[in-house]
Amino acid sequence: MTGFTRRKILTGAAATAAGAVGSANLTTQTAAQTAADDADRALFVALSAALTGIAKERLSPAVDPVQINRQYFDQAKTDPAFDGLMQIIRADPSNPAAAAEKVLSNSDSNIKYLGRSIILMWYLGVWYAPKKLENFNSSPPKPPYPPPDKVISPAAYTQGWTWRVAQAHPMGYSELLFGYWSKEPPALDAFIK
Amino acid sequence: MCAERMPNPDVLIVGSGIAGVLIARQLGRAGKKVLILEAGEALPADINGYMNTFLAAPAKVPESPYPPALFVGKDLTDPGTVNAGRPTVLSLGAKGKFGDWQDPKQAYLIQKGPLAFGSTYERLNGGTVRHWLGTSLRFVPSDFEMKSRFNRFVDWPIKYRHLKRWYGEAEKDIGVSADVADQNYLGITFSSNYPMPKIPLSVVDMEVEKAMPNLKVAGVGLDGLKWKVSSTPAARNSQPYQARRVCAGNTNCIPICPIQAKYDPSVTLAEALRTGNVDVSYKTVASKVYVDGNGRVSGIDFIRYHKDDGDPVERGRLTAKLYILAGNAIETPRLLLMSKSEQTPHGVANRRDDKGSVGKYLMDHPLYLAWALTPKPVWGYRGPLSTAGIEVCRDGRFRRDRGAFRIEIGNEGWNFPIGDPDTTTVDFVNGLNGSKLNEGSKPLFGDALTTALNDKLSRQFRLGFLVEQSPDDSNTVTLSDQFTDHLGLPRPQITYDLSEYTKRGLAAAKTTATAIFNSMRAEEFTSKPEADDPSTFEWPPGQTTRIKYYGSGHIVGTHRMGERSENSVVDSFQRSHDHYNLYLVGSGSFPTVATANPTLTLAALCLRTADKILREDLR
Fold it and tell me: Residue A23: its pLDDT value, please?
C-alpha cells in the first residue's frame, strides 16, 4: 500500500465511477483538480520547508487536525506571482533547497518577495503582502513595525514557527505545565526538525 | 427597565471593576441589595470570545481582546462614535502619524500635554483588571508616610498597620501566590500567610539573580545596597484555587490568560451574583450624580444602550441609600465633574468653593524600559510575563530627592520593547535591521534563518522600572468642552507632565538598568527615542539626549484621601468629605503612587471600606 493514501484511493474510486456513469464528468473534473491541488500543495509544503528551515513533517504532519498548510496554500494562491513561484519548484521537485534559492534570488521581485511573505506566514501566522515587504525595504519602518495585512486565522497565530524557533510557544498558547519556565527547554531540533 | 431590575436597592455602585465588585460581593453576602451600573459589555459565559478576538487581532495590545473594537478597517475607531469609549496604547503616536495622541478622532482622551499620559483602561465587566499582569505587591510602610519620613508630598491618613489585615484578606480574595519569607523587606510585616505557594523563578530571573552580588550602582542614592532578586507575589494560581486552573505559563497575562489561571474581577463578580442580592445593568452609563439640599446624594442618571455605536434605548434616574463610584481614576472624576448643579457648582464631591481636588493629582508609574541580550540563552517567551523583580530599591533616603522605583524582570523577550518576536523575524526574513539584531541587514532563509533567530530570540530579556511619580495638582482630569462620546457626554481631558522629581527617578532607572546589564555582561540595545515621541523628555534638561517612558496602566490620584477637604476628596474609608452617603473607591483615592502595582492596595482599601459600610452605614 506504500504511496496509497486514503485520498488517492478515493480519487481512484471517483475516476472509476466517472467512467461507468457519464453524468459524473463534473465529479471527474473536480477530483482531477483536487488531485492537482494536492500535488501542488505537497510541493508548496516542500518548498516552504526549504524556505523556513522547518522540517516538512513539522509543517504538514501525518496527523494534522489543524491543517494549517491548507490555509497558507490558499492564501499564497491569491498572489499574482504564485504560479511563477510554483513553476520553479515544479521544474525540479526533487530539489526544494535549490528552488528556495531560486525563489529568493529571483530577478522578478514579485516572486522574490512572495517567497519572503510565505516564510513570514509560516513563522508568524500572518500575511505581509509582498509589495508591503518591498516597500519596507525601500523605506525601512521603525519598530514596532506596522501590523500585517492580515492574520490568516486565530489558529494560524497558534501555529507560528518563530515561537518554536525561540524554543518557546506562542504567547497565549502554552501546551506545557506549571513551572516549566524554571527549566531549560529541549534542544532546538526537538522543536523544528 | 433598568430600575425594574432591582427596585429600592440599598446600594448603587457605578463600575464592575475590582473595586466595585469586591464591595458588592461583601455587601451581597451580608444580605444587602446592590445594583451595579456597568458602562460596558455583559459578563460572558466564558472567555473564549475574548480569546478568539485576541488571536485574530493584528495588533496584540492590552486592549485587543475587548470591546469596543479598536479598528474600523485599517483606521482606529473614532471614539466619538462609541458609547463607552476608552483609551488605547495605539493612540500614543507622534503628531501627524498613525495614532496621533492629540487627534480626537483616534484618541479617546483629549490630551493637552505637555507630555502624553500613557496608561489605558477598559470599560466592561471586570474593568481594567481584565488585562492586568497580576502583580500583587504590598506597599512598604514608608509609602504611606512620604511627608513624615522624607518631607515630600503628603502622608496618607492611614499607615501600613491599618491596612495590614486587609492586605491579608485581599490576598486570599484574589488568590495570591507568594512566600512571606521573600516579601518581608523594607519594613513589610505579615499577620497571615499567602493562600498559595510562590510562582517559581524563570531562567531569565535566575540569570539576573547571578549578577546581583557584583552589582554596583553609583550616583543615584543606591550605593552600598544589598541587591536581591525577589519572586513577585502574583494573583496567579500555583495550585487550583477558586475552581480555576494552575498557571500553564501562557506568557499572556496581559491582555488575557486563556485558562483564567490569573485572577480577574469576573471571578468576584460571579461570586457577587451568586449571593442573589447583587444585580448588574450592563451597557448602562452613569451620566450625572444628584445631591439634595442636605448635601446627600439623591440619585444617579443613567443612559442605557444596546449597540456599542447605537442610540440610547433608555434613560432614567436610580436611587439608593448609599452610592459608590468605582469607575477608575479617570472615569470617576469625569462623572463627578459632569454633575454640576446649584448644590454642586464645581461638581459633586468637589466643595462649593473653587478649592476642591477632584480630578487633580493624576499619577501613573511612568515606566522606564531597557532591553539587552544575555551572553548565553535565557529562553524568554516562556512562563508568566513576569515572575520576579528587584524590590530592595523601593525605599531609601534618596526619596527626598527623586522618585523611587521597583524593577520588573520580563519573561517575554523583547515583546514589550519592539514587538518581538515579530520585528526580529521580519528583519531576518526581509533583510531589515529595526531590531538592531541583523547587522548587515541580510535576508536569511532555511537553516541559516532558524540558527540566527534562535540565537537572538533565546538571549533577549528586558527590565521595566516602575517609577514613583510626584502628586502634582497641575496633572488633571477635566472635561473637554469640545469633544463628546456617542452619548453626547464630554470626554475626559488630560493635562499631564512629569516633575523634576519624577524625571530624576527615571534618569536613575536608566543608570541602574545599564549597571545591571554590565554586571550581567549583557549587551544593551535600549533604543534612543525619537524627538517627536510625546512620551519622551530631554535629560538633563536642555540636552539632546531623551528618555522615553511608558504608561504602566496604574491610574492613580484624582479623588485622593486625606483628613480634610482642603486638600483631599475622601477620608481614609473613601467616603466623600462633602456627601455622607457617597463613596469614591479605587486607586483614585491614593494620595501618593509609591512604587508597587496598585491593585492589591486598592483591593485592601475596598475591603476595609465594605467593612465600614456594613458596620456603620447599613447596620
Answer: 57
C-alpha cell at B543: 540636552
Count Cβ atoms below 10 Å from residue B447 Cβ, excluding itself. 15
pLDDT (tens digit per residue) in B120-162:
999 999 999 999 999 999 999 999 999 999 999 999 999 999 9
Query: What are B27's strand-pairing partners?
Result: none
Flag whether A44 is in a domain.
yes
The upper half-sphere exposure of residue B228, i.e. CA atoms within 13 Å in the direction of its Cβ, equals 13
- The CATH architecture of the domain made up of B2-52+60-198+233-366+469-498+549-617 is 3-Layer(bba) Sandwich (3.50)
Q: Which of A136, A150, A157 sits opposite B430 (nearest CB)?
A: A136
The answer to whether the CB of B129 falls within 8 A of the CB of B136 is no
Sketch the domain layout of chain B as residue ranges: 2-52+60-198+233-366+469-498+549-617, 199-232+367-468+499-548
Contacts of A54 in chain B (CB under 8 A): 450
Q: Is B512 helix (H, G, I), strand (E, B) or coil?
A: helix
In this prediction, the residues of chain B whose per-residue pLDDT falls under 70 are 1-3
A179 touches chain B (CB under 8 A): yes
A89's grid cell: 519548484
Model pLDDT, residue B501: 98
- The three-state secondary structure class of B208 is helix
Q: Are strands B536-538 and B546-548 parallel, antiparallel or unpaired?
A: antiparallel
Residue B414 grid coordinates: 523583547
Within a domain: residue A34? yes
State the ipTM, two decimals.
0.95
For residue B67, the number of C-alpha atoms closer than 13 Å in the C-beta half-sphere is: 18
Q: What residues of B are in contact with residue A127 (Cβ under 8 Å)?
A: none
Give the pLDDT score at A37: 86
pLDDT digits (tens, 9 = 90+) for B306-327: 999 999 999 999 999 999 999 9
| Residue A19: inside a domain | no
pLDDT at A35: 84
User: Is A127 inside any structural domain?
Assistant: yes
Q: How far apart are CA A152 and CA A155, in angstroms?
A: 8
What distance in Å separates the CA atoms of residue B455 and residue A166, rounded to the nearest whole number?
A: 8
Which pLDDT belongs to residue A10? 39
Kindly report the backbone phi and psi dihedral angles of residue B301, in degrees, each rounded to the nearest multiple of 5, phi listed first.
-80, 145
Report the number of distinct structural domains present in chain A.
Answer: 1
Q: What residues make up the domain containing A180?
A: 6-13+24-192
Report yes or no: B381 and B578 within 8 Å, Cβ to Cβ: no
Task: Give the burial class of B546: count Cβ atoms within 10 A of its Cβ; 0-12 exposed, 13-18 middle, 19 or more buried.
Answer: middle
B111 to chain A nearest CA, in Å? 23
pLDDT at A15: 39
d(C-alpha B442, C-alpha B229), whole Å? 38
Instruction: Give the closest-approach CA distance of B423 to chain A in angstroms.
Output: 6
- Collect all residues of chain B within an 8 Å Cβ-Cβ radius of residue A176: 248-249, 382
How many residues comprise chain A? 193
Q: How many CA atoms lie within 13 A of B115 on its CB side?
A: 25
Nearest Cα residue to B423 out of A135, A192, A169, A123: A123
* pLDDT computed for residue A3 by the predictor: 38
